[in-house]
Structure formats: C-alpha cells, structure tokens
Design brief:
By secondary structure, the protein is an all-beta fold. The chain is built from no helices and six strands.
Length: 54
C-alpha cells in the first residue's frame, strides 16, 4: 500500500496509473506486482508492506 500524506504522486501498475492528489489517497497492490512511481510535486508518501519480513 502507498498512501499520500502530502503532495501529488502517481503509481504505475500493469493495469494503469493511479494518481493521488488528496491527503489520504492510497493505492493497494499485491506482492510481486511490477510498479513504478512519479512525484509531480514535493511529496511525502507512506509505504506499508505486508506480510512484513521477520
């Protein structure tokens, strides 16, 4: 999961691009999913990975 905390950010996935413009917007994708990202402005995002590595 990638959640936008501040800024303007996009995540590109195999089925398209998800643009995040509002605080709290988020994108969820599964393990092994190819992805890339682009920050359009200075941005802060929170990335959560699960299951975590132990």
């Amino acid at each position: 999961m990638v959640m936008l905390l501040r800024g303007h950010f996009a995540v590109r996935l195999p089925d398209g691009e998800q643009e995040m413009k509002r605080e709290g917007d988020f994108v969820v994708f599964g393990p092994g999913t190819p992805h890339s990202w682009q920050a359009f402005d200075d941005s802060v995002v929170l990335t959560v990975r699960w299951p975590s590595v132990v």
